[in-house]
Fold each of these.
Amino acid sequence: MIDRLKDRERQIVDLLANDPNASVQAMSSAIGVSLVTVRSDLESLADKGYLIRTHGGALPAFHPAIVERQKSRQEEKQRIAHAAAALVGDGDTIMIESGTTTALVARYLLGKQGVKVVTDSTLILPYVRSNPALSVDFVGGSFRADAESMVGPVAVRELSQFHVKIAFVGSDGFGTQTGLTTHHVEAAEVVRTMTDHSDRTVLLVDSSKWNNRGFFRIQDLSRIDTVISDTGLPPEARVEMESLNIEVITV
């Protein structure tokens, strides 16, 4: 979501993520604009759902971890998500797993007709609100604020009621030896369920995660059909994945 903000709005969100108690005066001094401008921006950000206004200031509407991840490798994430959305045709059924890269897929579905989306991600809400052509089912479960996702047995059970053409998933690390890994145990079962209930599983992951190992193993990399990453992916990574009959797309 942060990719849609103007530079000054992004600065305000960053300031509040680092210090939720920052005053309007402090933000005015840090950014170099008037108090009136800061207050106007705060109102605008609150209307857009990025902040919650308080007396004399505001609070971020998202967990600081989400804000931090959204700032990381923004250009690569945009390219990866755009390439992923290009795989979706009119009338397709898809799943989108929670994550700052996967959520962007919904942004690039604008213009496609009759696409049905199943997701555990609350980050995609701003994109689906502005795209009435999408049909979206959000699964229930336990809300995890630092991932903006629904997890747990309820989420897994509801996901298992669907079957889709493509599942778009992410991971905190991937490699031919380590497989897909995550820092959050709850996310593993969600990814496995999406893989089991889709004709094609597409991993969206930036190159910095190659051979990184998260806390918990999700599944073998061979369970993935397609990997979309950025051009920083090492040549040996492509060779290793293609030896497993995985399609590799770099953008």
Amino acid sequence: MVGVRAARLAELTKVGPGLLASLVIAAAAAFLADHYAGPVMLFALLLGMAMNFLSEVDRCKAGISFASRTVLRLGVALLGFRITLREVAALGWQPVVLVIAVVTLTILISIWAAKALGFKPEFGLLSGGATAICGASAAMAISAALPPHERKERATGFTIIGVSTLSTVAMILYPAISKLFGFDDNHAGIFIGATVHDVAQVVGAGYAISPEAGDTATVVKLMRVAMLLPVIVCIGLWARSKGGHGDGERPPLLPWFVTAFAALVVLNSLIPIPEFVRDAGNTASRWCLVAAIAALGMKTHFQEIIDIGWKPVVLMILETMLIAGLVLAVIWGGWI
């Protein structure tokens, strides 16, 4: 027993400083987001990048890596508290079909566009998945599921910056676009929920129109969050077909955090979980993801982001325009 306690204490001592640094940066990002109404994920990434010298400090390295991997996966798993199958079923089959079709088309076209621009298909999957599903959270989850690559963290950091910035722009513009097209509250909510990247910006844009539009937008957005599960399963199948993550072993079809995510969705749907438990799970998920992004920022240098060039910017703008255009066409065409 004494030996086990000593081992746990040694492990905590090893990861403690870097994990504490990630949590402090996450708290600072949350403060800025609350007081200046900005995207907390973007603040966390930028503050982390400003403190990237900590990733070179020996005492902090282990904790920063722990936050960017294990804490990230825990945050993704806890996203399952956000979704119930009842909420999805309440909207009917048409919005469900719309979400599945739009997410699938956006990701597939993004992979094709990335290859056309000279990037690896993984970058199209990462950026397209972030655009199509739930912004920075999806970028982190997809990055965690992708096989290791020397440029993966840099690509993930760039994707988070791009998707957070574009999501904020969409939050401002899309309510005006809904009004321009003469959408009622239901259609405006579907448009907002099916196109804006991050959950927080969906809520902001939806409720800026009306409470009814906000409710619809939130449920449609959660349907997109639910698409994270099949997308990661597909990534797992693809990774297994390539023969593993470079260590000679085949990766699991469902990583533990995806299994936990699915279990929480089912549990949340079948059992009446108290509201305070769901709120606690959502809060824990948010803090885990913000801390993980702060850790990712500490492992990233500004120059690495700048060196990526203009092509990824064009790709992410095109992805944003694509998903908005697809949803507008469906609603304007009277198919929903």
